[in-house]
Amino acid sequence: MPRPELSELDHLREVERLANAVTNAAAAEGWLSFAPERQEATSLQRAVNQLARGLRHYHFPGDRCLDEDDDRPTVKLAGVVLLRPSAMPTGMEETYQEACARLGVEPRPEGWALWNTWGEGGIQVTMIVSAVDTTVGLLENWARSKIVYPVTPVPSQIVQIRQGWAGPMTFSPLGAKKLGLTGQP
Questions:
Q1: Who contacts 22 (Cβ-Cβ below 8 Å, separation ≥6)?
Q2: What mean pLDDT comes out for the span 1-19?
Q3: Comparing C-alpha atoms, which of 178, 180, 161, 163 is closest to residue 123?
Q4: Which of 25, 44, 56, 149 has the maximal Cβ count within 10 Å?
């Protein structure tokens, strides 16, 4: 039976799945390490440990892993908000339809992503974008302590830009650091 044709992103996810299987097997054998290499580690153990350290990245559209994104700069985000018909952010008391009406956007089955960032002069702005899958990928990475940011959305993905930040947001690593929310001095 022929293998299905994979998109580049699906291929990357499949490679990542297989690499996770390798590192999980090494962990089960008791020798996987995220610490500096032991002197007695074999070349295979060193390679698998290095692979495991690099696997903390979940791939998503716009993560700069594909060549097509190379000419677009990244957006440094303070945080994000996902608005979906089936699940609204904790602490947001309005319904999905009410939130869409307040923002001046049409409700969509897939929802909206609100990207809180900085405009010229450091002004706080929110970009309302259709890049929901990208935002889910960001959250997956941030949950793994991986500091990644998306490429700038194409104009058709940006519905509007509003002054101020939308909330309640999930802070990015950069946003938490800039706002002094990391618990670090």
A1: 48, 51
A2: 77
A3: 163
A4: 149
Domain ranges of the chain: 8-54, 73-178
Q: What percent of the chain has pLDDT over 90?
A: 41
Q: Are 112 and 96 in contact (CB under 8 A)?
A: no
Nearest to 52 by CA among 71, 29, 72: 29
Helix (H, G, I), strand (E, B) or coil at 134: helix
pLDDT digits (tens, 9 = 90+) for 110-123: 999 999 999 999 99
Whether 45 and 26 have beta carbons less than 8 Å apart is answered as: yes
**Beta pairing class for 112-118 and 158-163:** unpaired
Q: Which residues contact 169 (CB under 8 A, 6 or more apart)?
A: 78, 79, 80, 81, 89, 114, 116, 175
